[in-house]
């Protein structure tokens, strides 16, 4: 897989849990020196549309993770991959 990891986030979040999830994903990726692009779905409607196309769910909410056009998963799937030591497989890197 030659794509780059993309983290879809929302900067307009009132839910503290979602804010924590987004920060944890960024912290883990940065800590493991995995390059990623951060795309704010609340900044541009096209970003939200794109994220939902990649996810394959027109009601999907951030945070979501993809590698190129390949969907990796949501926060719960990310968390499970970290716990299982399978982050690279999850991210397809």
UniProtKB/TrEMBL annotation:
<dbReference type="Pfam" id="PF04908">
    <property type="entry name" value="SH3BGR"/>
</dbReference>
<dbReference type="InterPro" id="IPR006993">
    <property type="entry name" value="Glut_rich_SH3-bd"/>
</dbReference>
<dbReference type="InterPro" id="IPR036249">
    <property type="entry name" value="Thioredoxin-like_sf"/>
</dbReference>
<dbReference type="InterPro" id="IPR051033">
    <property type="entry name" value="SH3BGR"/>
</dbReference>
<protein>
    <recommendedName>
        <fullName>SH3 domain-binding glutamic acid-rich-like protein</fullName>
    </recommendedName>
</protein>
<comment type="similarity">
    <text>Belongs to the SH3BGR family.</text>
</comment>
